[in-house]
Specification:
The protein is mostly helical. It has a single domain, classed as Up-down Bundle (Amino acid/polyamine transporter I). Helices cover 78% and strands 0% of the residues. The longest helix is centred in the middle third of the chain and has 49 residues. Keywords: Membrane, Transmembrane, Transmembrane helix.
């Protein structure tokens, strides 16, 4: 069993996974779940983290055991697998990244009190700055910076959660009644929460590619035990942070009939106020910087991963069936993603919610399919028998697939019927 010193040294893909997940499902959905529905939403959060665990774990397991990325594994199972994943990736690429930059721009405006600058202009600056960081610093800088950002965020959230629990819940307004969970609005929110907790299933390929890059940087291959311990540490941190955000939302907003705004700038201010209400105004700048750093790191990890996945897919779609790994390819991918997503952001800003809803729908409905594709990879002849998932983990995988399939079918029924 690797010791703590070895674990810290091996931190990488699991850490990046935690950073990426925190800014999407956690900061928005977990907080909103606690604020609107109370502590009971801890059940679907924990359930989703448990049932979706194998899908992400297989991204590490397959890469270590087969010395291939998940995407190359899809191609090995048949072109249909690769084409299907390419479609999912295409739909989400030009919506989710734009949405992440919008929220981060809102936090920037809130932090530096610059209401005179538009969200789109701040987003443009962020696109340019992050693109430069990724092209120059690449994976090594990304990993190093996130060790500090995620550590600071975890401590800030832990302190805030403890103070919130000590102070106790806010007093509900007179006549407050808990919103129904099992009506149409409640079910749709529950489906969104489960679908994006801890994040979308297709992100399993992101972990796979980060693992490959980690090998290149360190020039050292990890054992399966070491790699899984590192990933499990990041995954556990992700689950704990989701619970922290839920508790903060529950203790500070539940029963007050306060709704978290859909406007990026207003939402940013509301989130920061959640923390400072219980710590004090003296902590405003500390919390605001932490919240901005959280979303900034999420933008970096998502931008980096989507660029890598895009190159991997394009490489295997070519006649030579080889990944595009040159430094210039990565630089071009980062720049093109920034340019296209900025155009999406400016052209469809008024309909950004609809664009994200489309990406969410495709991602959620296809989640059990991606889960099945990942299972086929780790159970294939690419993986030695002693490195394949245990029987209980296989059962958990099937349980997760049936769970997600049920919610996907129910989601489709509610949307179309």
């Amino acid at each position: 069993m690797p010791n703590l010193k070895t674990l810290i040294k091996n931190l990488g893909p699991g850490l990046l996974f935690a950073s990426m997940a925190i800014g999407t499902s956690h900061l928005v959905l977990s907080t909103k779940a606690g604020a609107q529905y109370g502590w009971v939403m801890i059940i679907p959060i924990i359930l989703a983290n448990i049932l979706k665990y194998p899908f992400f774990e297989f991204g590490i397991r397959y890469t270590i055991a087969a010395d291939k990325t998940l995407i190359e594994g899809y191609l090995g199972r048949g072109k249909t697998y690769l084409y299907l994943y390419s479609f999912i990736h295409l739909v989400t690429t030009f919506t989710i990244l734009a949405a992440l930059y919008v929220v981060t721009a809102g936090l920037f405006i809130n932090l530096f009190d610059t209401p005179g600058i538009s969200v789109s202009m701040v987003a443009l600056g962020l696109f340019a700055f992050i693109s430069v960081l990724l092209i120059i610093g690449r994976y090594k800088f990304l990993e190093l910076s996130l060790k500090f950002v995620v550590s600071i965020l975890f401590i800030a959230l832990l302190v805030t959660t403890v103070l919130v629990l000590i102070k106790g819940p806010v007093t509900p307004v007179e006549g407050f009644r808990r919103p129904e969970i099992f009506n149409e609005v409640g079910i749709l929110f529950l489906i969104g929460l489960v679908g994006w907790m801890p994040t979308a299933v297709e992100a399993s390929s992101w972990i796979s590619l980060w693992t490959v890059e980690k090998f290149k940087i360190t020039n050292r291959r990890l054992s399966l035990a070491e790699a899984l311990q590192e990933f499990n540490s990041g995954y556990l941190m992700t689950a704990l942070l989701a619970v922290f955000f839920l508790l903060i939302g529950w203790m500070t907003l539940y029963g007050t009939n306060t709704e978290l705004s859909g406007n990026a700038v207003t939402f940013a201010d509301q989130v920061v106020q959640l923390f400072t209400t219980h710590i004090g105004q003296w902590a405003y700048i500390f919390i605001a910087v932490s919240a901005f750093a959280t979303m900034f790191s999420t933008c970096m990890t998502a931008h980096d991963a989507i660029a890598r996945v895009s190159l991997d897919i394009l490489g295997f779609l070519r006649p030579t069936r080889k990944p595009l790994v040159a430094r210039k390819h990565f630089a071009w991918a980062v720049v093109i993603l920034a340019a296209v997503n900025y155009l999406v952001l400016t052209a469809f800003s008024a309909n950004m919610g609809n664009l994200v809803a489309l990406a969410t729908f495709i991602s959620f409905v296809m989640a059990p399919v991606v889960g099945y594709m990942n299972l086929k990879n780790v159970m294939s002849k690419d993986v030695p028998a002693d490195m394949r998932p245990s029987r209980p983990l296989q059962w958990l995988t099937w349980a997760g697939m049936f769970f997600l399939a049920f919610f996907s079918l129910y989601y489709c029924w509610m949307i179309f019927f």
